[in-house]
Description:
370 residues; Immunoglobulin-like; C8orf32 fold; 2 domains; globular
Amino acid sequence: MSDTVSRRSLIQGACALAAAPLLPPVLAQERRYEPQVGPWRGFETTTTVTVADHQGTTRVWLPLPDVETDYQRSLGHDWTGNATTMKLVADAGRGVRMLYAEFPPGVGAPTFTLVSRLQTRGRSIDWSKPGRASEDPEVLRAALAPSELMPTDGIVRKTALEATRGARTEIEKVQALYRWVVTNAHREPKVKGCGTGDVRTMLETGNLAGKCADLNAVFVAMSRSVGIPARDVYGLRVAPSAFGYKELGAGNPASLKSAQHCRAEVFLRQHGWVAMDPADVLKVMRQETPEWIRDPAHPVAAPVNKGLFGHWEGNWIAYNTAHDVRLPGSAGKGTLPFLMYPQGENASGAFDSLSPDSFRYTIAARELGA
């Protein structure tokens, strides 16, 4: 594109925005931005835990970016601290690894640091070029199975069948479900953390308010219920958004203790795993402007509504895709709906993973040079 055309496009975009009084100062860049594959970007994330409450034996589990795909690859992990045990452990049944640290009662100030280096890039599907994708049958079976909080029968399947009535192909069904979530659910900023993903309760009560782990869970569970493999991908925002939206990027890479974000993906036989994120569409609609946007066709919401169907930005890293996670060595008997936050426990019980200031952990990221 020539400089003349580029300047003309910028001027035209600015004029269009000036005519829309509700538009925030996101201007022409994100309105012209199209999610795309590559180039690879390198990041280093640092998670530091300093346990204030150290009664008895202290145990801590940290999620780590452990997804090897065509959009993310690991460059390694290092850890240091004064724990007697620091090692990688796994919930093998769920296919998720984590860093485990154990401190005996005599350690006065339990502390340790995990540093992970990786490369990530955007994802973008070319719908005009269908093919024939393959995947391990076990992976697909897992992506169709219910979890404790995401059933695939009852009201979930009933709602999904109604939402996809008239849709014949996989793509048409996914489009219908994505549209249904964006139209019927909404972002609720008061929900703690990223939510819990209790899909049955949300549908039975009709309260479709939540955050990313709730909203994308509805999309994933409904997709599974009509035979489309789908999964949540749990991770962390590490850089600003190329869309220009403040809500879709890491506000302060030096302090990411509340930057966790869950995305979603579906497996289509003609395209393989395809990126989705209706939850971020709803985040823009609720929080990007002072006024709550109700219509996804609104000029502020429309670019991201289109852009997050089949695409992701590479400003985010993936931890894992696991549900119903067990923490190896934990005194607790239950499971976590997902592992996206640091977890800890000692003689006084489990720590509040959603309260980093009392749990005493920090997360930071920096982009690595080319």
